[in-house]
Amino acid sequence: MSAASFAPLTPIAPGAIVSIFGERLAERSSTSTDFPLPADLAGTQVLLAGRQIPLLYADEGQVNAMIPYDVAVNTQHQIVVRRGTSATTPEPVTVAPAAPAVFSTDGTGKGQGHVYIARSGTEQVLADGGNPARAGDVLVIYCAGLGATDPPVAAGMPARADPLAHTATPITLRIGGVEAEVFFAGPTPGFTGLYQGNAFLPPGVAPGDAVPVVITVAGQVSPEVTMAVR
């Protein structure tokens, strides 16, 4: 499932970070700290459609991996976790062009989202009850699963700032049911599998500490997270 939303029984997407849960998946707990991300971590590999994919984290009960950007979409593939010479039963997964999800601050995919007010080129403040956003503020929303990019980005490598990649398919952002003007959507430079949407908070959003935030791309709608608005 998406490592951002943890929503069950939903498609995954090219460029997405996914979490795989099970038992005896890895020899020990290990986290990738270097680029490119490895295809073998703590003695564990993940194969999607027969090919190894980059790994971010592995332990006995969970593996986090990145879906390659060039995997075939609108189809079903099989995913397998291999530990040494042993392998899991293949599990079917559906890959869609996009599977948007906004990261949440508590890591559950629900509640306060990683939605920030851009105070300057370098300062970002979480748009929560202590620092609510106001109409006209520039927002930065950190998310996953926005799909293919232009120019293409290599899975397991950090996104570059020059040239700056954009999502191949435009996104729609609604805050409190009001559509916001998105002026950038694409991978976050210096990271892998992390996207961001930059937008202006529109006028007319009803104030509150738990205003819903939803992203739509390629016909797929993200699970709802929240932000604070005044």
Description:
By secondary structure, the chain is mainly β. It folds into 2 domains: 17-95, no CATH class; 101-229, no CATH class. Helices cover 0% and strands 42% of the residues. The protein has strands at residues 17-21, 30-31, 44-48, 51-52, 55-58, 62-66, 75-83, 86-87, 91-95, 101-102, 115-118, 124-126, 138-144, 149-150, 166-167, 171-175, 178-187, 195-200, 208-217, 220-221, 225-229. The strands form 4 sheets. Strands 10, 11, 12, 13, 16, 17, 18, 19, 20 and 21 form a 10-stranded antiparallel beta sheet that branches. Strands 3, 4, 7, 8 and 9 form a 5-stranded antiparallel beta sheet that branches. The chain has a 4-stranded antiparallel beta sheet with strand order 1-6-5-2, with no helix packed on it. Strand 5 (55-58) and strand 6 form a beta hairpin. The mean pLDDT is 96.
